[in-house]
Fold:
Amino acid sequence: MDAPYRLPVPSSSTGLIDKFGRQVTYLRLSITDRCDFRCHYCMAEEMSFLPRAEILTLEECLRVAGCFVGLGVNKIRVTGGEPLVRQNVLWLLERLAALPGMQELVLTTNGSQLERLAAGLRDAGVKRLNISLDTLHAERFRQITRIGNLAQVLRGIDAALTAGFERVKINTVLLRGINDDELIDLVQFAIDHAIDIAFIEQMPLGEIGHDRQDWFSGEEAMNRLRQRFTLLPSTDTTGGPARYWRMPETTSRIGFISPHTHNFCDTCNRVRVTARGELYPCLGDNGAVPLMPVLRQQSTDDALLRSAIVDALGIKARGHDFNLQIDRPRVVRFMSMTGG
Ligand code: SAM
Ligand code: SF4
Structure:
């Protein structure tokens, strides 16, 4: 934490462009593989986490992010694991927000630490928050997360609203037979709190025995919600997999993140860096480039790191390859490793 770090000089290059002509402007940075929950769709019950020496230090996270921003990235989402269980996370966030060229620093969290940290996150320069919430029933919440406490997360959401982020969004993973009877209640919760909600189709990641029986499509969710709410198409886009709808007389939007049913790869603008410093150009592909060796061999000069990042874009796949029909997931990482 004490090592001095020089802010990178913004590059004069035309940015990070892959071989299919897509420009990368958005980095999803996982700062830990650890978490205080064990959601069934994300982690195994018994997880072995990485030793501390094998994950990027906060200074290394900042160095990597600084290189990306120097190469034209203007939006960073900090994620995990649970990013808010990482010690001194505010130290990093303040510095990420201050990188020259950064426009949007955003964060995804399970909400467990927000009561304590929401105001600090806002002061550090985080503009928007995604908070995961799959159910409004305490017992179900405990079952889905294995150890989570719903009341704590709801208090965290209140703290986030008090802190005054530009936008707060709920992320809900669609789970047939587990929370599909709550879709309307969850949307009503979002409307009552004047926040957005996005429904996510479950992705088969990691060797955690995904139960294909509980998969529920965004399309079916939308059809159900249409019976209660008027959904007006919106042109709002993040350049990613979410399609948004507005509801008259509310400020809330409903998003559907449907990697199986709607292909969004043509406009993909993002890459991911894991807590271990692996650069994954595509969430749905196993191709990755390790940045840690370059970072640790060249502790001050960022030239090699920048060229490793530029070269890595060469392996960005044209599209992802999730397949619910095959026996084993083709992508064998846990979501908590890659940062959802
Ligand atoms: N711990 C934080 C959280 O839960 O919000 C951030 C990391 S989590 C990996 C990011 C997002 O990925 C969460 O919204 C979570 O619900 C989602 N997620 C995890 N595993 C998933 C899976 N197999 N399919 C779809 N979404 C998943
Ligand atoms: Fe933790 Fe988020 Fe994964 Fe749940 S989805 S286990 S909260 S990292």
Observations:
- The CA atoms of residues 176 and 216 lie 5 Å apart.
